[in-house]
Structure prediction request, 384 residues.
Amino acid sequence: MNTTIKLTSKLPNIGVTIFTVMSKLASDAGAINLSQGFPDFDVSAELRSLVAKYMALGHNQYAPMQGVPALRQRIAEKTKELYGALYDPDTEITVTSGATEALFSAIACVVRTGDEVILFEPAYDAYAPDVELAGGVPVYVQLKYPDYHIDWNEVKDKITPKTRMLILNSPHNPTGAILGREDMRALIDIVDDTDILIVSDEVYEHIVFDGQRHESMIRYPELAARSFVISSFGKTYHTTGWKLGYCLAPKELTLEFQRVHQFITFASHTPTQYAYAEFMEQKEKYLTLPDFYQKKRDMFLSLIQSSRFRPLPCKGTYFQMLSYDAISNEKDVDFARRLTVEHKVAAIPPSVFYIGGDDHKVLRFCFAKKEETLMAAAEKLCRI
Prediction:
C-alpha cells in the first residue's frame, strides 16, 4: 500500500530525550553511565518481597483510580509529620503512574489555549511539551548562573493577565539548587491576590544536604492553597522503574486533576502500592536519605578533587554540576559526547534544558551510584 498520510506534528521541535540519547551512547561506547538519573545499586530486598507478598495475596487487579486507600493514608500521615499540613486522603491525594504522569495531569487539567506558564531554565524537559500540548505558552525565566538562584524581580516582570501557572522544581534538576525561605516569601508576594496556580515538582524532597530544610509549598498555606505538589516513590526508594508518584492538592484542584488522570492511566500498579504503604511505616528509610546521598556527593567530590573539573554548589538532588571550562571550550553537547566516547564517562549537557541552548561549559553527573562506580568514573575524570 502506497497511501501517504499528511501529518503535522503537535511537537515539531521535540526529538528523543537527551537521557535516551546519552544512555544509548554510554551503552554503545561501554562507558560508565553518570548521565541518566537512576541508581545502579539494588532495591531493598524487603521492599521487593513486599511486592511479591501482595501479588501472592491476590492484589493484582485495578486499584482505585485515586490510589490504594492504605497508601493515600500513609502519604497523608507523612505529609503531616514532615510539613505540618493535613491533606484528606480521600479528596486531596492521588497516586499516579510516576511523577511525569502527575506533571502532565496537573498541567493539562487547568491550562487552556493561550494561557501563559512560567518555567525556570534550565528546565526539566517534560515541562514545556506538557504546556504546549495543553495549548499553553511557555514563558521562560533563567536561573542565575553559577548558583542558579531566581531573580524574583524578573519573575514579576514576566507576570501578565494571561499568566495561569508557575512550574517550580526544588530541589532542582539538573542544577542541585534549592529554594530558601526568602524565595518562598517572594513567591507569596507575587501570587497574592491573583488566580495563578503552582505546579511544584518536589520529587527530590528527601535529598537536601548540609542540614538545610526542604521548603515545600505545603509548609506555606498561602501557596499550598493554589499548588499541585508532586512527589515520587522512585526517587525516595531507588525504584525509578516502578513508576509510582503522587499529587497533593486542595479538593477543588484534585477534582480537576483526577478528571484528567483517570483517562491517562486510570490506576497504577496495585501490589506495588500496597507494598509502599507497608514499607512507609519505616520512617527512617526516607528520613536518613539526606545523609545517605550527602555521603555519596562528598565522596564523588573528594575523588575528583585532583581533576580539572570545577564543582558548582549542589544543595540537593543526586546530581552534581561540574564546570569543564579549564579543560575545553567545546559546546557542552560536543564535550559530553567526546567524554563518553573517548574517556568512557557519560554525563548530561545542560544546554538541552534551555530553549536557546545556553551553554555555561558545565555537565551534570549523577552520583546515585555504588562506591565502585563512582571510584571508576572519578579515576577516568582525573586523567583528563
About this structure: The mean pLDDT is 97. The chain has 15 helices and twelve strands. The chain has two domains: 18-43+287-382, 61-283. Residues 61-283 form a domain with the Aspartate Aminotransferase; domain 2 fold (CATH 3.40.640.10).
